[in-house]
Amino acid sequence: MTLNEKKTNQDPGAIERAPSNGSGELISLEKGVQHEVFKKGDGTVDFRTVGWIHASVIFLKVIFATGVMGIPSAMSSLGAVPGALNVLGWQFLNTYCAIIQGNFRNSHAGCHSIADMANVVGGVWFKELVGAVFLITYTIGAASGILGASTALNALSNHAICTNWFLLIATLAIFCLASVRKFEKIAWLTWVGFISVYIAVFIVVVGVTAIDRPAAAPQVGDFELVYCAFVHPKFVDGITAVATIFCSGARTSAFFPVISEMKRPKDFNKSVYLCMGVVTTSYLTFSLVVYRYCGQWVASPSLSSAGPTIKKVAYGIGLAGLLVTSCLYVHVAAKYLFVRFLRRSEHLQKNSIVHWAVWLGCTGGLCAIAFILAAGIAIFNYLIALVGSLCFAPLALGLPGYLWVYDHGSYRTGKPWQVLMYWGNWLMIILAGFLMVGGTYGVVQKLIDAYSVGLIGGAFSCADNSNST
Q1: Which three-class secondary structure state does DSSP give residue 26?
Q2: In the chain, how many domains are there?
Q3: Which one of 69, 100, 136, 231 is least enclosed by Cβ atoms within 10 Å?
Q4: How many of the other CB atoms lie within 10 Å of CB of 50?
Q5: 392 near 435, Cβ under 8 Å?
Q6: Are 87 and 95 in contact (CB under 8 A)?
Q7: Residue 126's domain spans which residues?
């Protein structure tokens, strides 16, 4: 019996490094199935029920939500050509990083979350740091969905009641949806959510081609569309736009709790390719059309770009998608906590009072925090951008680069193409650091500018501040 086998027998939750074939490439871990977090057994809840098509739709809903609503305005800061290249480049990198993390997770089968992967390469302190960043990121992401749902309800009701009540209604709905215990059971919600957002955005794309002038432009007199192939923005505007496009597809760290519930975890790559192919194609076509017809007058979020009537139709159809987005963010964050609390307990897969109390406590607690964030921070759009730079850059770009370097150390002195790949992944880590620092600086400067011109409303007020830019 090897040392690793002894450790595994003593600690079923232990995560050990996968064996290597000597060239830096990892051996397939079909033998590592016994180390999966969720195991199949008599008298236990079977969590591993998600097929690869369902997984791809869950991934689509995680990615395709608020991102598509912000890219057109980012294009207006960069121009059509740089904007399109940014969409293609960042989505390629996001896909690459998702595949790296998926392969790493499947080679270290005890990893349930990105924090577990951090534990493999950096130890306990790194695991706790990454876990905290993961929770912060998706709790605030859930709050953005709550805020988006309240914006939709305000648009549909002409602000009939205080925004805080709409926030509470959205939070309660999200708590009920997120508390469904298994990803398989919320798969049908992701179909509804993705289709609703896709149709809503498509309606706006068609709508902007049929109106005389954009909704945000002056409605009388002459106006300049200002559609440009190339724009030369200031650093603050440019880095904020770049960070927005990057973050639109960077939620890949939410994919990995799903792998533990897939029937065949090795099908993960197929799910990612399908998801990111649809996302990239849709982002590119939708954003280019909206920017072409709205120019500098593109609204953020873009659902408001085609006038009040289409805005109501789009928000009415897309409301389900906004709720499901927050549901998924709460679910993945709560599942991380749930597994952390019960991983070595018989209650992890047992229908017990402890099992349900911990699960509902996780979803309810995260929903409460998300509600407080959504209701208490009037400058929420800026906070989302700030957390995107601070959290998504290291989680979705820097950490995957280091995971690859960790498992392919021999490439540093290998063949020329291997050396190129090795230093290319180090370059990706450096890029993540630049985006984190530069994006944070850009958002902070935007905050300062917004305060100076009085664009910021009061916290916990009844005013709808979600569109503050």
Answers
A1: strand
A2: 1
A3: 136
A4: 26
A5: no
A6: no
A7: 49-453
Query: Can you tell me the distance from the alpha carbon of 323 to that of 263, in angstroms, rounded to the nearest whole number?
Result: 27
Give a yes or no: residue 43 inside a domain. no
Written as one letter, the residue type at 393 is A
Nearest residue to 102 (alpha-carbon basis) of 300, 270, 351, 243? 270
* Cis, peptide link before residue 301, omega less than 30° from 0: yes
Q: Is residue 295 part of a domain?
A: yes
Q: For the residues of 115-171, what is the DSSP string, one character each?
A: HHHHHHHH-HHHHHHHHHHHHHHHHHHHHHHHHHHHHHHHHHHTS-S-HHHHHHHHH
For 88, counting Cβ atoms within 10 Å of its Cβ (0-12 exposed, 13-18 middle, 19+ buried), the class is: middle
Highest-confidence range of 255-259, 263-267, 455-459, by mean pLDDT? 263-267
Judged by DSSP in three states, 19 sits in coil
Cα separations (Å) of 63 from 27, 95, 246?
30, 11, 11
Q: In sequence order, what are the residues at sequence separation of 6 or more whose Cβ sits closer than 8 angstroms to the Cβ of residue 266? A: 28, 106
Do 394 and 432 touch, CB atoms closer than 8 A? yes
Percent of all residues in the chain with a pLDDT value above 70, rounded to a whole number: 83
φ, ψ for residue 195 (rounded to 5)?
-60, -40
Of 181-190, 336-345, 353-362, the range with the lowest mean pLDDT is 181-190
CA–CA separation, 193 and 130 (whole Å):
28
Angle, nearest 10°, between helix axes 416-453 and 380-387? 160
Model pLDDT, residue 450 = 73
DSSP 3-state of 369 = helix
Residues linked to residue 26 through DSSP beta bridges, in sequence order:
20
Number of residues assigned to the chain: 469
In a domain, 194, yes or no: yes
Rounded CA-CA distance 25/33 in Å is 19
pLDDT tens string 200-220: 889 999 988 888 888 777 777
Report d(CA 381, CA 385) in Å as an integer.
6
pLDDT for position 10 = 37
pTM over 0.85? The answer is no
Q: Contact at 8 Å (CB) between 197 and 282?
A: no
For 41, 48, 209, the CA distances from 175, given in Å and listed in that order, are 29, 23, 38
Give all strands (DSSP E) within 365-438, no chain letters.
none
CATH code of residue 132: 1.20.1740.10
Whether 461 is in a domain gets the answer no
| The two structure tokens encoding residue 422 | 């090795």
Predicted local confidence at residue 464, as pLDDT: 60
CB atoms inside a 10 Å sphere around CB 12:
13
Residue 181's pLDDT band, with cuts at 50, 70 and 90, is confident
